[in-house]
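stage 2 :: seqdesign
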Protein backbone atom coordinates (compact mmCIF):
# COMPACT_ATOMS: atom_id res chain seq x y z
CA UNK A 1 0.00 0.00 0.00
CA UNK A 2 1.30 3.44 -0.90
CA UNK A 3 1.05 6.15 1.75
CA UNK A 4 1.36 9.88 1.19
CA UNK A 5 2.46 11.52 4.41
CA UNK A 6 2.90 15.18 5.17
CA UNK A 7 3.69 14.50 8.80
CA UNK A 8 6.59 16.49 10.23
CA UNK A 9 9.93 14.87 10.86
CA UNK A 10 10.33 14.03 14.55
CA UNK A 11 13.29 15.54 16.39
CA UNK A 12 13.32 15.19 20.17
CA UNK A 13 15.48 17.69 22.07
CA UNK A 14 17.67 17.02 25.10
CA UNK A 15 19.12 19.88 27.15
CA UNK A 16 19.77 20.76 30.78
CA UNK A 17 17.26 23.08 32.41
CA UNK A 18 18.97 26.36 33.21
CA UNK A 19 21.52 26.11 30.38
CA UNK A 20 21.56 28.05 27.12
CA UNK A 21 20.52 25.80 24.21
CA UNK A 22 21.09 26.35 20.50
CA UNK A 23 21.11 24.23 17.36
CA UNK A 24 21.30 24.73 13.60
CA UNK A 25 19.05 23.30 10.91
CA UNK A 26 20.11 23.15 7.26
CA UNK A 27 17.22 22.93 4.78
CA UNK A 28 17.40 21.39 1.30
CA UNK A 29 15.57 24.48 -0.04
CA UNK A 30 15.78 28.26 0.28
CA UNK A 31 13.78 29.41 3.35
CA UNK A 32 14.46 33.13 2.89
CA UNK A 33 10.88 33.86 1.80
CA UNK A 34 9.26 31.92 4.64
CA UNK A 35 7.83 33.08 7.94
CA UNK A 36 9.22 30.94 10.76
CA UNK A 37 7.18 29.95 13.84
CA UNK A 38 9.11 27.88 16.37
CA UNK A 39 7.97 27.21 19.93
CA UNK A 40 8.46 24.77 22.78
CA UNK A 41 5.36 24.87 24.94
CA UNK A 42 4.48 28.58 25.12
CA UNK A 43 8.12 29.68 24.72
CA UNK A 44 9.31 31.02 21.37
CA UNK A 45 12.77 30.14 20.12
CA UNK A 46 14.99 32.97 18.90
CA UNK A 47 15.39 32.26 15.18
CA UNK A 48 18.40 33.58 13.25
CA UNK A 49 18.76 33.08 9.50
CA UNK A 50 22.46 32.42 9.01
CA UNK A 51 21.95 31.90 5.26
CA UNK A 52 19.08 31.27 2.84
CA UNK A 53 19.25 27.58 3.78
CA UNK A 54 20.27 27.64 7.46
CA UNK A 55 18.43 28.61 10.64
CA UNK A 56 19.86 28.75 14.14
CA UNK A 57 17.29 28.19 16.91
CA UNK A 58 18.12 29.29 20.46
CA UNK A 59 16.75 29.38 23.99
CA UNK A 60 18.27 31.25 26.93
CA UNK A 61 19.12 29.74 30.29
CA UNK A 62 16.11 31.51 31.81
CA UNK A 63 13.80 29.99 29.18
CA UNK A 64 15.13 26.43 29.50
CA UNK A 65 14.77 26.57 33.30
CA UNK A 66 10.99 26.70 32.79
CA UNK A 67 10.72 23.82 30.27
CA UNK A 68 9.99 20.37 31.67
CA UNK A 69 10.50 16.94 30.15
CA UNK A 70 7.79 15.95 27.70
CA UNK A 71 7.11 19.53 26.57
CA UNK A 72 6.21 19.52 22.87
CA UNK A 73 7.93 21.74 20.32
CA UNK A 74 7.45 22.54 16.63
CA UNK A 75 8.95 24.43 13.71
CA UNK A 76 6.42 25.76 11.20
CA UNK A 77 7.17 27.35 7.85
CA UNK A 78 4.66 29.64 6.12
CA UNK A 79 4.82 31.02 2.59
CA UNK A 80 2.10 32.42 0.34
CA UNK A 81 -0.58 31.56 2.94
CA UNK A 82 0.46 27.90 3.15
CA UNK A 83 1.71 26.62 6.54
CA UNK A 84 3.53 23.36 7.10
CA UNK A 85 4.89 21.89 10.33
CA UNK A 86 8.38 20.89 9.19
CA UNK A 87 9.74 19.50 12.48
CA UNK A 88 8.23 18.55 15.82
CA UNK A 89 9.06 16.56 18.90
CA UNK A 90 9.44 16.93 22.64
CA UNK A 91 12.02 17.64 25.32
CA UNK A 92 13.42 14.40 26.64
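stage 2 :: out
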Amino acid sequence: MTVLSQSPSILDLSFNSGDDFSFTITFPFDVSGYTIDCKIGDTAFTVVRTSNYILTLSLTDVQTALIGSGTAWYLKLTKDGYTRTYLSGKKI
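stage 3 :: structure notes
- The radius of gyration is 14 Å.
- The beta strands are 9-10, 21-26, 35-40, 43-44, 46-49, 54-59, 72-79, 82-90.
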